[in-house]
Design goal:
The complex is a heterotrimer of chains A (489), B (312) and C (314).
Chain A: E1 5-16, E2 19-30, E3 34-39, H1 45-53, E4 60-65, E5 68-69, H2 76-81, E6 84-87, H3 99-106, H4 115-130, H5 147-159, E7 168-172, H6 180-195, E8 199-203, H7 207-213, E9 216-221, E10 224-230, H8 236-243, E11 266-270, E12 280-283, E13 287-292, H9 298-307, E14 316-317, E15 322-325, H10 329-332, H11 340-345, E16 353-354, E17 357-358, H12 360-373, H13 390-402, E18 408-412, H14 420-435, E19 439-443, H15 447-450, E20 455-460, E21 463-469, H16 475-483
Parallel strand pairs in A: 3-8, 3-9, 6-7, 7-8, 13-19, 13-20, 15-18, 18-19
Antiparallel strand pairs in A: 1-2, 1-4, 4-5, 9-10, 11-12, 11-14, 16-17, 20-21
Helix pairs in contact in A: 3-4, 4-5
Chain B: H1 7-29, H2 36-43, H3 46-61, H4 69-81, H5 83-86, H6 88-111, H7 116-134, H8 144-150, H9 159-177, H10 179-189, H11 191-196, H12 201-227, H13 238-248, H14 260-280, H15 287-311
Chain C: H1 2-10, H2 14-62, H3 72-87, H4 94-118, H5 123-142, H6 151-158, E1 160-161, E2 164-165, H7 166-184, H8 186-196, H9 198-203, H10 208-233, H11 245-255, H12 268-286, H13 291-309
Antiparallel strand pairs in C: 1-2
Helix pairs in contact in C: 2-7, 2-10, 2-11, 2-12, 3-4, 3-5, 3-10, 4-5, 4-10, 6-10, 7-8, 8-10, 11-12
The chains are: A alpha/beta (489), B mainly alpha (312), C mainly alpha (314).
């Protein structure tokens, strides 16, 4: 019973039009194991998980659950009946409902007298179990919570059980909006959950999470499973290697770095209220990093810089031409009805005007140039933006900003859900552009990315609490500043 | 971290506050209005408007808009003063049929992913056409039981007030407190994830449209209970009034954020605005203008409070 | 040729024109060849006015969910009334009258946007409240008296070249210009972007509020211009002259293949839809339908058309 089979996929294939997303996948999940699933964007992870969760219907192949081959069409309700749940990358809560009401949405059996109380107790109990001291109350309206807490509710909800036993929870990038502490709490919960016989499939771009948490790691590439082994037989290097991208050692040599602050050519400066507050500045050709725990004011800082473009007063100086790379591409970045080309050029149209009209030739040229430069995986830039995978959509957003004439580019944790190979390409591109004189302000939740920055500001509670030059940058110092309760001044 | 006074709570108290203010202003100008008879006179026409507003709110809950509700209330009124009086069975069947058509509209809009504005816009012509066919010239007469019900004399509080409170509480319970009401609002908040959680979007939409039809029928019956006769155009202005009522009551067009109690109060506020003008003896030329001004004023108040809230 | 057909099939405005031709052919069955020419000529005269307001309404609707201009009828009435009273039937004042009408449009557009922005209320409610005030102003300004338009203006609005009204030709040119504005200018592109995702539009560097302001002013100015010519066409400004243009302007935009959800619009469809709506009523008339039946058929056909054309990408 300990190692009974939860689900077994056999030769599952799926195509979207001419594009084959999955080409014959066999996957067996046993009770009590945590399976890490890694691969590039477009490798087919999300498609596979959507099929497992019942949101997508596979073309060929078979699915059997608990040893029984499924007759006919598989669906979300059927997945739920069999104890399979999924935490999607895009949040699936109803923002207008309370935390308790969102539990009701998932559990049809929560009804009748006192359902509200039972739903609230169920979900807040699970929240307390996974993320102790989270400060979320059952009557909170989900839309009023910050994104990190929304994600906590989403995850906790997936683990709640009423009348149907829970066997398998699919976690698709569950920590993307969580800070380090919450992410650690989740990973230790996953280990407790699997120890009690539950199973998890964990998808994450943070390979450490995968390596530390999973029992077994499945590697996908181009719609197929290319490697599956015990987690112990992988390390960071070999995992990246088997995904098919070249592992690039982060350049840790801070000493080589020469500060650009000496020449005094400030591109952006933002004064901050308060006596001991640290003002923000970014110089020409500099890559400035914004660090700290997720949701501590970094995005707000980027948006206020962006909103102040063209303003030059004592408190704020921002150049006229600024571009923004959104991190939350669904709500902040993509124009869903437009082609890849139109999505790429929108920030540049003012500079392409010829006799009052936008020049279609130059527009096409810009889109083509950047498709090649940043390797957007598409046969035609006139295809809909939605035909791209999430990571490729993100590349288009990069192309939009880099292709514009902006002097400064603001990046709001833009690497969420982007594969390792692309990341390295983009890092290189950013460095080139910075050397050519552009200024980058880069909010990131990943330590590795801060190593690409010349200067780092650490945020805590909506304020800058520390300022580190590249030479002084260490993970310890950033963590220290992020977590300190009071500034030591 | 004060959980007792949240912006959300203040916003939801605003409709009640503006209603009270308007009522107080009327009492100040015309103290004689402060009576059983006065209240009844001012508010009884608010009952059908409140019901139409709730009908509109059902549709707004699932992110749609009903531009045909006014014409629909008109059809109901026309059926009410003809068939329902002469051949009650046919009348009841026709009204049930109307609700079924509403449910079918919900199904059509959901299945074909159609813009509700256009479908209901088309339906407004259809309803009006039916109304003209059923009752070509103004007139008809209302069933006695309906007349008797709408003019019921209740102790202490006028029937219109009691009825409004009852309706508001009932719909509040149904939409805001019951398990299925939660599902309906959830479908407005995140339709895709509702489907992923296994709820039928089709069923939800059909239910909410049928509810809209049901409240539209109640609105039409309540209206003729008061006016005793009808014509095809009797309730055309309800379309815009009902939208205004929902918004005045704190509802939003998208995202399933609605407030049944607020919607009823919003509808009554709009009704009072009419009486207010009469008491002020404003020239008829400016009546609709002043109505708009009161609407703007109330919304401005809301904006101000919102802004103060944000600064804090 | 086949790629042309494939492209044609993808055009969102196709249905409106198919419907137009079908209605016209059906009418021709009864009226015969000569009558059908007259029907078409009349259709162009009336469709012209719908197209003018619908262009403005379309740009507003393109701005995204909740953006609808409900003040169009009131704005038409105000502009028509003010212009007619100012011109007082004198031919020399025609240009002054037009400028006055356009001025009314600017005022209404600015007022609408001020309400939306300052009170942060949904545009539907803002334009609805504004329309009450504007309508009242029109009533109070002229007490409902009907002033005759200058003879030259009345003549201009009814002049035809080869059966096609001059005004219709002018509005066709206007439609071409506005089509280019929508698809090829920074303004048009910005409107389309805002309609799909206004936050993304802001972060892509579009000055969202400026564009929205321009769009509401544009809609009001077009409505005012329509009010001016309509008053000239129909022998003076009537207080209810804009009434049918409220629902019709929305219907024309959507039947023309634009998305009410915003971000996806086209100008040619406006002509198709306006001609279609007029020809449909004409057809029902020629078949001798009663008023009630005509209304029902009008409504059903709107629903059938949107059902056939609908289910488009959102």
């Amino acid at each position: 019973m300990v190692h009974s089979e939860i689900v077994n996929l056999n030769g599952v294939e799926k195509s979207f039009g001419a594009v084959q997303a999955l080409g014959g996948v066999d996957l067996r999940i046993l009770a009590g194991e945590c399976v890490g699933l890694v691969g590039h964007n477009g490798a087919g992870k999300s498609t596979l998980m959507n099929i497992l969760a019942g949101t997508l219907v596979h073309d060929t192949g078979s699915i059997s659950i608990a040893g029984n081959l499924l007759p006919g069409r598989y669906s979300v309700p059927l997945a739920h009946q069999n104890g399979i749940r999924c935490v999607f990358q895009e949040l699936s809560l109803c923002p207008n409902l309370s935390v308790a009401e969102n539990a009701r949405v998932l559990h049809a059996s929560l009804r009748g007298f006192g359902w509200r109380k039972r739903a609230g107790a169920l979900l807040t109990g699970m929240l307390e179990d996974i993320f102790p001291a989270n400060g979320i109350v059952a009557s909170d309206i989900v839309g009023d919570l910050d994104i990190g807490r929304r994600q906590m509710v989403e995850i906790a909800r997936a683990f709640t059980v009423t009348d149907v036993p829970l066997h398998l929870v699919i976690l698709d990038e569950p920590t993307s909006s969580l800070d380090n502490v919450a992410a650690q709490q989740l990973m230790s919960f996953v280990r407790r959950f699997t120890a009690k016989g539950g199973s998890c499939i964990l998808i994450s771009h943070l390979l450490n999470e995968i390596l530390e948490t999973s029992d077994r790691i499945v590697v996908m590439r181009d719609g197929r499973i290319v490697d599956t082994r015990d987690a112990g037989s992988f390390d960071h290097q070999s995992l990246v290697g088997s995904m098919g991208s070249v592992a690039v050692e982060a350049d840790n040599d801070g000493a080589k770095f020469v500060s650009r602050r000496a020449d005094g050519d400030k591109t952006i400066s933002m004064g901050v209220e308060g006596a001991d507050a640290i003002p923000f500045a970014a110089h020409r050709g500099e890559i400035v990093g914004l660090a700290g725990l997720a949701g501590h004011g970094q995005t707000d800082m980027l948006v206020s810089i962006f909103a102040a473009r063209g303003i030059s007063v004592e408190a704020a100086h921002v150049p006229q031409r600024v571009a923004f790379v959104a991190g939350d591409r669904q709500t902040d970045g993509v124009f869903p009805l437009w082609s890849i080309a139109l999505n790429t050029t929108i920030s540049s149209i003012t500079s392409m005007v010829h006799r009052l009209l936008i020049d279609p030739q130059r527009e096409k040229q810009l889109a083509e140039t950047w498709r090649e430069k940043i390797a957007v995986r598409t046969p035609d830039v006139d295809n809909s933006i939605l035909s791209l995978s999430g990571g490729n959509q993100q590349k288009v957003l990069f192309a939009r900003a880099l292709g514009s004439n902006a002097d400064a580019i603001l990046m709001d944790d833009p690497m969420r859900g982007v594969d390792v190979g692309t990341k390295q390409d983009v890092y290189r591109m950013i460095r080139q552009e910075a050397d050519a004189g552009r200024t980058f302000v880069w909010y990131t939740t990943e330590m590795d990315e801060l190593r690409n920055c010349d200067h780092v500001y650490v945020f805590r509670d909506q304020e800058i609490v520390a300022e580190l030059a590249r030479a002084d940058l260490t993970e310890e110092r950033i963590l220290q500043s992020s977590f300190d309760q009071k500034a030591q001044s | 971290m004060n959980r007792l006074i949240t912006p959300r709570m203040l916003r939801s108290a605003l409709p009640a506050l503006s209603f009270t203010f308007l009522l107080a202003a009327i009492f100040y100008i015309q103290p004689r209005a402060m009576s059983y008879f006065g209240l009844n006179l001012m508010l009884n026409l608010g009952v059908p408007i409140a019901l139409a507003t709730l009908a509109q709110m059902m549709v707004i809950t699932v992110n749609d808009l009903d531009l045909g509700i006014g014409a629909f209330v008109g059809v109901v009124a026309c059926i009410g003063v003809t068939w329902l009086k002469e051949t009650p069975l046919l009348g009841v069947a026709a009204l049930l049929g109307c609700i079924a058509i509403y449910a079918a509209l919900g199904a059509l809009i959901h299945l074909r992913n159609l813009p509700s504005i256009v479908v209901t816009l088309g339906m407004s012509f259809v309803w009006l056409g039916f109304a003209v066919l059923i009752l070509p010239t103004p007139g008809g007469s209302v069933p006695d039981w309906l007349r008797a019900f709408m003019t019921l004399k209740t102790p202490y509080l006028p029937f219109a007030v009691i009825l409004s409170i009852l309706i508001a509480l009932l719909v509040h319970w149904g939409l805001m407190r019951t398990a299925y009401g939660t599902i309906a609002r959830g479908a407005g908040g995140n339709p895709r994830s509702m489907e992923q959680a296994g709820w039928s979007g089709l069923r939800i939409k059909m239910t909410m449209y049928a509810m809209a039809g049901f409240f539209g029928v109640l609105a039409g019956l309540a209206l003729i209970g008061l006016t005793t006769s009808a014509d095809a155009n009797i309730a055309l202005r309800y379309t815009l009034l009902s939208i205004a009522g929902v918004i005045l009551g704190g509802g939003e067009f998208v995202g399933g954020r609605i407030s049944p109690i607020g919607a009823v109060i919003g509808a009554l506020t709009l009704t009072l605005a009419g009486s207010f003008l009469t008491f002020l003896r404003i020239s008829p030329d400016w009546q609709i203008g002043a109505q708009g001004a009161i609407l703007i004023l109330v919304l401005a108040l809301r904006a101000l409070i919102n802004q103060a809230e944000r600064k804090k | 040729m086949s790629t042309f057909l494939v492209k044609l099939r993808e055009q969102p405005w196709l249905w409106a024109f198919v419907g137009t031709i079908a209605m016209w052919l059906a009418t021709s069955l009864v009226t015969g060849a000569q009558g059908s020419g007259q029907v078409l000529s009349a259709a162009f005269s009336f469709a012209t006015f719908f197209v003018i307001v619908a262009i403005g309404q379309m740009f507003v609707i393109t701005l995204g969910p909740g953006n609808v201009d409900l003040s169009i009828p009131a704005c038409m009435t105000l502009a028509g009334t003010v212009a007619m009273k100012l011109m007082a039937g004198s031919d020399g004042m025609i240009l002054v009258g037009l400028l006055a009408a356009i001025g009314c449009g600017f005022a209404v557009g600015i007022f609408n946007f001020a309400l939306i922005r300052l009170l942060s209320i949904p545009p539907i409610i803002a334009t609805l409240s504004a329309s009450f005030l504007i309508q009242s102003s029109a009533i109070a300004y002229n007490r409902g008296l009907r002033v005759k338009p200058p003879a030259a203006l009345a003549e201009f609005t009814t002049t035809r070249i080869g059966g096609i009204p001059v005004l219709a030709i002018a509005v066709m040119l206007l439609a071409i210009v506005m089509h280019i504005v929508l698809t090829r200018t920074v303004y048009g592109r910005s409107v389309l972007a805002i309609g799909q995702n206004s936050k993304a539009a802001f972060l892509a560097g579009i000055r969202v509020e400026r564009i929205r302001f321009a769009t509401y002013v544009l809609s009001a100015v077009f409505a005012a211009t329509c009010g001016y010519f309509l008053a000239g066409f129909s022998g003076g400004a009537a207080l209810n002259m804009g009434e049918e243009y409220l629902l019709a302007s929305i219907a024309v935009v959507v039947i023309g293949g634009s998305s009410v959800a915003g971000g996806y619009s086209n100008v040619p469809g406006l002509w198709g839809a306006a001609l279609f709506l007029f020809l449909m009523v004409t057809m029902l008339n020629t078949f001798g339908a009663s008023a009630g039946l005509r209304l029902i058929m009008t409504g059903l056909i709107i629903i059938v058309v949107i059902t056939l054309a609908g289910g488009r990408k959102r």
